[in-house]
Amino acid sequence: MVNINLAYTAPINPPGASPVLTPAQVWTGLQYKVRRAEKFVPVITHCEVLSEENAPSSSSSASSGSDNTNKTHTITRLATFRAGAGPKGGGTVKEVCKLHPPCRIDFVQEDGTTIGNYVSRGPEGELMMTYVFEWRVEGVEEGGERERELEGEFAKMAKLAVEGSIETIRKIVRGEIEMD
Q1: Do the domain assignments include residue 151?
Q2: pTM above the 0.85 mark?
């Protein structure tokens, strides 16, 4: 087994982007992505939510009441990847998705593969989106040719996922995609 670690970052509002997205709009879009990943990530064909739960985050207090901003929201889902794509080369994987408002979502698959979606700010205050991946791949020799091939494939997939997510959020804000 080999672990392939990589990350991809893109500006959320590059010059000329319209509309300019706010942090709240981006967070709303990422929350929706957990439920409807197929609208955001081209290699995912279907997404089914199995369960949900809210838990206070470590920074919340008893006085936070029903304010959902201080809660970690956990969603367990099944994500189906198109044949030949995704961490297993296609098929369905179970993921536990932990939403940490307002800037981080962690996805953990049953084999330990993890994906993080992060919204941050660059040196000039610009919004950035980064996806960090740790893919665990069975049957691949560390340092071998197949590992290098997978690194290239996964790097392309990471770029598509980040840029596709930003564009989908922008389409939602423009009213071109309806959140259902």
Answers
A1: yes
A2: yes
